[in-house]
Amino acid sequence: MGLPLRKSKVCPPPTCPLSEVLGLLRGAWAPNVIWQLSGEPRRFGELRHDMPKISARVLSARLRELETRGLVTRRVLDTSPPSAEYSLTSLGRELLPAIDALACVGRKLIEEWEMHQRKVALS
Amino acid sequence: MGLPLRKSKVCPPPTCPLSEVLGLLRGAWAPNVIWQLSGEPRRFGELRHDMPKISARVLSARLRELETRGLVTRRVLDTSPPSAEYSLTSLGRELLPAIDALACVGRKLIEEWEMHQRKVALS
DNA sequence: CTGTATCCATGATGATACTG
DNA sequence: CAGTATCATCATGGATACAG
Q1: Residues 78-97, chain B: which have Cβ within 8 Å of A?
Q2: What is the pLDDT of residues B63-109, one digit of tens each?
Q3: Can you give the three-state secondary structure of A88-119, one letter per residue?
């Protein structure tokens, strides 16, 4: 028979909002894109330069997604050749603290991991 | 020629720590697993019950990852049939506020999105 | 019950080439 | 420069069957 299943005492998991955001942070790039836009508006080419390993296709796709969700705005500049500038909306800026919180935990994770590795190396 | 590339004024992107965490939150399940463990320790079967749509293979994989990274501990219970209980370590608990922050932004995102949809419907 | 192994479908990404 | 189309590749997740 085994043990009975205990009812979860965790309140409604924030699954929907969470997956909403995580869906946006998807891939390995979206968080970086947002981060890169945290300062001044940046052009497509500048973003590519900031993230040398992202392909144009993926960068384009991420920007469209973020634009659709209202996190990023796109502005076409009247230059020759034409260029486009992307910036975070105020809604998009709300993600920054959350991203920062994650990065903060990430740093601790790496620290602990290295400490753990050292211990293992000694034994 | 076009515009010159402006140097990014964004300080060193927290790419490494970020991807460290996001790598852990990967898939669509890890955050939920962590959330489900935020209360009391839970057994494998209980977790499956909490997340009906996760497959045993994936749940197992996620738990192993989290265990390896020191976010989760696994304890085998001396029952018949044997069962295993998982709980968050203190390091793992540090992720909770960050996850909560994300969920918080997620709620706003959904709100804004719905408002946006209503506007579109009217026009 | 607690997993693990296998097979398969899907989705995300990179590279390349090409249009406006 | 900005962006898209196409193709090939790889990682991830689900289903199922099975082992301890």
Answers
A1: 79-81, 83, 91, 94-95, 97
A2: 999 999 889 999 999 988 889 999 999 989 998 998 888 888 888 88
A3: ECHHHHCHHHHHHHHHHHHHHHHHHHHHHHHH
